[in-house]
Amino acid sequence: MSGEPMLWSxxxxxxxxxxxPEQVRALLRDFLGVRAPDAPAVGLESVRLPPVALSxxxxxxxxGVVGPAYVLTSHEARVRHTRGKSTPDLLxxxxxxxxxxxxxxVLPGSHEEVAELLRVCSAERxxxxxxxxxxxxxxxxxxxxxxxxxxxxxALDLGRLDRLLSVDPExxxxxxxPGVRAPEAERLLAAHGLTLGHFPxxxxxxxxxxxxxxxxxxxxxxxxxxxxxxxxxxxxxxxxGTLDLGRAPKSAAGPDLRQxxxxxxxxxxxxxxxRLRVRRAPEERRYEGWRxxxxxxxxxxxxxxxxxxxxxxxxxxSDETETMIGLAKPDTIGSxxxxxxxxxxxxxxxxSGWGSVAARQAGAAAVLSRMGGEPLGAEPGEAWEHxxxxxxxxxxxxxxxxxxxxxxxxxxxxxxxxxxxDAVRLALAGALGSPLVMCHxxxxxxxxxxxxxxxxxxxxxDPVAQWERAKEAANAAIVTAGGTITHHHGVGRxxxxxxxxxxxxxxxxxxxxVKARLDPAGILNPxxxxxxxx
Amino acid sequence: MSGEPMLWSxxxxxxxxxxxPEQVRALLRDFLGVRAPDAPAVGLESVRLPPVALSxxxxxxxxGVVGPAYVLTSHEARVRHTRGKSTPDLLxxxxxxxxxxxxxxVLPGSHEEVAELLRVCSAERxxxxxxxxxxxxxxxxxxxxxxxxxxxxxALDLGRLDRLLSVDPExxxxxxxPGVRAPEAERLLAAHGLTLGHFPxxxxxxxxxxxxxxxxxxxxxxxxxxxxxxxxxxxxxxxxGTLDLGRAPKSAAGPDLRQxxxxxxxxxxxxxxxRLRVRRAPEERRYEGWRxxxxxxxxxxxxxxxxxxxxxxxxxxSDETETMIGLAKPDTIGSxxxxxxxxxxxxxxxxSGWGSVAARQAGAAAVLSRMGGEPLGAEPGEAWEHxxxxxxxxxxxxxxxxxxxxxxxxxxxxxxxxxxxDAVRLALAGALGSPLVMCHxxxxxxxxxxxxxxxxxxxxxDPVAQWERAKEAANAAIVTAGGTITHHHGVGRxxxxxxxxxxxxxxxxxxxxVKARLDPAGILNPxxxxxxxx
Lengths: 534, 534
What we know:
The structure is a homodimer.
Chain A: H1 22-32, H2 56-66, E1 71-72, H3 75-80, H4 87-94, E2 104-106, H5 111-124, E3 126-131, E4 152-157, E5 164-168, E6 173-176, H6 182-190, E7 194-195, H7 208-213, H8 221-224, H9 227-230, E8 231-238, E9 241-245, H10 258-261, E10 270-277, E11 279-280, E12 284-292, H11 295-308, E13 314-318, H12 320-326, E14 340-348, H13 357-370, E15 374-377, H14 378-386, H15 391-400, E16 403-413, H16 417-432, E17 436-441, E18 448-458, H17 463-480, H18 496-518
Parallel strand pairs in A: 2-4, 3-4
Antiparallel strand pairs in A: 1-2, 5-6, 6-10, 7-11, 8-9, 8-10, 12-14, 12-15, 13-14, 13-17, 16-18, 17-18
Helix pairs in contact in A: 2-5, 4-17, 16-17
Family (chains A, B): Belongs to the FAD-binding oxidoreductase/transferase type 4 family.
Domain FAD-binding PCMH-type (chains A, B): 98-281
Enzyme class (chains A, B): transferase
């Protein structure tokens, strides 16, 4: 298995935990009214777990498939596979609430073992939660409750399926097992001079299978595309047999069934291999900052880039609040007040001419200048690049300091973005009083873009219930304002009802029909994605 | 309704029928052994149709939904909705075989009327064949046979749903009804300075709904994308309710159900409106030719363009045979023998700088020269542009002259293309003796491309059976060689079995489950796309 396990009660490598700077503490105190003393997480050994519900014969049957060494029921293994990394998940874990723990963790070593596990678990009504990097922020990994009619719940950890299977340098296709973590995938590809170019916030721990199952999109999506753009083929083990899809980049052979697996979040089957479009690794990278007077002006500028080109590799526009909060040194933002910061990054395999960093940067600069942008040079871009994966560490420190911080996101067509932006902010303010709400546009398309919100608020007595109220209000606002309930976090359990509203009853009935056909016992990630049949 | 009806026994406007040049007649005679005298099509009035199977009360019920003026049972209306435009379709129609005619043609005027028709036809077990431009070349429109258990068959002609509903110039999204023909869509969009950029061979008659239902891809797909790339939203009437999909360009909200409707060929529902990504109309267009010594060298060059850029708007590489046959003036192909002709077209909204025709043409020229290409200047490109929609007319003349001509296509990953190319040619030679087989690459992706074959052979006594043998052999070769059974023609009935092999039994079971859920009576385009449940 690749990499070290992540901090069970928070994010990442415990050695990289961040002290909150005094200026942040002052902000929390003076602007958000955070008064609570620091509340450290309980120790791992103090997490309260339910007893293992699976019988010894059943555990033996699972061990018969994967070998006894790969069926784990230890306290630590169960804690480490309890929930994902949403803020409610972390708040519960920090408080020692391990009620959603699986009974066992099972680690298959091959497609055939996955298929056999699904057969055994279907026959015995054992719920199966496919588990990649464990980074879901939408309740995608929450085990079913004991009263759900299952004999037990296993986390199906794909960490042993961690190989690069093949590289086709002519077609620029690499075949991977699903449990490969993103940094390891990049390391393996770098040996061939290749890259995926997929760098979501969860990059350091998330797996390729998880990216596909949840339709991930990374910080360089403008240049490298979404993860679903990268998937050209999939092998999927389902309780009723194996799906093997993808004979060509594109096809007119019926509905694209790959697109039914992408985003299926382990509810239809378990991805056991992926064929991914890769790119030649860039030889040059450059990041820069631009300033716009208002979020509306900046949005018009990123829209112009998306519709006219050239599209940078990385493109991120912060609203006024995010710009103000995010700036360690507000004087770097230029002459006219804080305004809005745009980060543009360019990567290229060419040193000069068409497609080079210089040519694209110059082309984009012409558009950004025309749209009222003021160039800020390389420093803001490099600062962003330096800190691009640090936000989840900051969240842990804020949670400990008595502030709730969480993110949520949506996407819509350009003409609808202002309505979506206002609706979400209003809903959060209505539910939380005076939260700090920051937003950025970070994934753009010709016809629209995503909006990514970060919310900070002083914790109330029951911070989970407090956040759930806010989340419900935001979900309702997104549905009403016509956006999609998620641009790249996925559906899981937190977005399931809003997702049902989004695709409507006929859409839901399609999902239920596919689920019933592929997983007739309903063991796969029950409760996630697909609303239960009424 | 937009546009004139098409020649019932062939393609297009009868006034544009082409006389075969003597050099083509000589080729047919001397190289293919075509000996048959010209065989004209029977007159429309001589086409033999089965009696109308639908009862008067049932026809009355349909008229109750759409009005009596829009339920047609005339000889001419039925003939004009019999079959599509594949060569076997035309051979049968020319011989007066109208056995696959629908009993009636029904023309709904709204989404609500479509939905109500589906309810009535489900209750009465009337098969419904959604009918757009009638240009299917894969048996997508063949009515069910009388012994299939249906009380009758109607063609659901969407020609009255022919409006541009709205234009969102900020999001670059236009909303259309499905029956708009492509030239009319371009005309409507041109008034807003916009274009779809979708120019398949069927452009002059095909409809937007048909493009979506069959996952069309046009001659400018390198620049404007496939039609499925253009669809950002869909409304679909199904027998069990309405689907309304597409709140954002992209989403992580579960499987992309739009991709389940795209390519569903009327078997799951009837598309009643489409939201399409449009582009600003280009101000400059330039087409040019390049010569490569061999198809392999040319393929490597188009692969380099697809993987490194810049991608022209139009890109088409003919193999040696197609190059030789296609050249009216063989001396235009340059110095080193015939070789292979590459057509590159560039369109842009910019007069200069990044993204302009000049910049992209120069960037592509650098790649093509490096890969061994020899520039031929504008003339071959302009000749291609001039004749880009004329091939179907030529086919009619060849059919009349005793030659069968038909096309078929596939797609695969770059490393697999040579195997696919050889396999299809061998299969056709095995089935047909010494056919003339031409091929081009005309849709490219980073990871692969399509292969488009044109086959010409002297007609035997039963030319339909002769072609069906060849088609079966080609289908089997594509499946065995690992390609997709169709890149842009669709599945229909001719590719259904190969499609089933391509997606496997689990894939087929998904299609059957969706079909059973949305169309429980099985009335929608029965026999197309979805293999019947065993």
